[in-house]
Amino acid sequence: MITAAQIAKSIYGACRLARFDAGGLKYFDNTLEEFWRSFFAAVIVAPMVMVLVATDLAELTLSAGPVRIFLVETVAYIVDWVLFPFVVLYVADFLGKGDRYFRYIAARNWAIVLQMSLIVVISLLSQAGILGESSAGPLRIMVFIVILIFQGYITRIGLETTTQAAVAIVLMDLVIGLILSAITIQMIL
């Protein structure tokens, strides 16, 4: 079980990393327990994802019913949280960085809480009409780029690897996400 203090410590570490402060990494232990505990971030992020999915799906004409949509989105969410860490385990070993894997995944998982919070705020401001589409579109692109840079930073310092390897890992994560998203949409259209 995870405590409120552990959640606060992990989010604080992620906030420090978001400021590109490598000291934020010290808030994540390089242990199997920390690795598993970091997946609690998925529980925190789930309501945010539900808001995003609901707003995105409201703009589509769907043939699937609510039960199918819920099941498909739930399975996709779980796969999204599990697939990348599974794949990067082998990549980290291949790069000779397997000894840094647990800390890296823990930092990455908690960083997703910050990333999704920002995305949801922008989405809600856009849906409420506070951000016009002329400003929301460019802002989304800018946030997407910042998130990729942030993920690259966490990857580079978390695995203590080269910038090129970090970029390749982040691009791999992006491709996995895009493929999963395309499959999910096809299953509910």
Core attributes:
mainly alpha, 7 helices, 189 residues
Task: Describe, in plain words, how this protein is organized in 3D.
By secondary structure, the chain is mostly helical. The chain has one domain. The chain is built from seven helices and no strands. Helix 3 packs parallel to helix 5, helix 5 runs antiparallel to helix 6 and helix 6 packs across helix 7.
Q: Please count the helical segments.
A: 7
Distance between the termini: 38 Å
Helix-strand pattern: HHHHHHH
- Helix vs. strand class: mainly alpha
* Percent of sequence in beta strands: under 5%
- Stretches with pLDDT under 50, minimum 5 residues: none
Instruction: Classify the helix fraction into a percent range.
Output: over 70%
The gyration radius over C-alpha positions equals: 17 Å
What is the topology?
Layout: H1 4-18, H2 32-37, H3 41-57, H4 66-94, H5 101-127, H6 133-159, H7 163-188
Helix pairs in contact: 1-5, 3-5, 4-7, 5-6, 6-7
Short description:
Helices cover 78% and strands 0% of the residues.
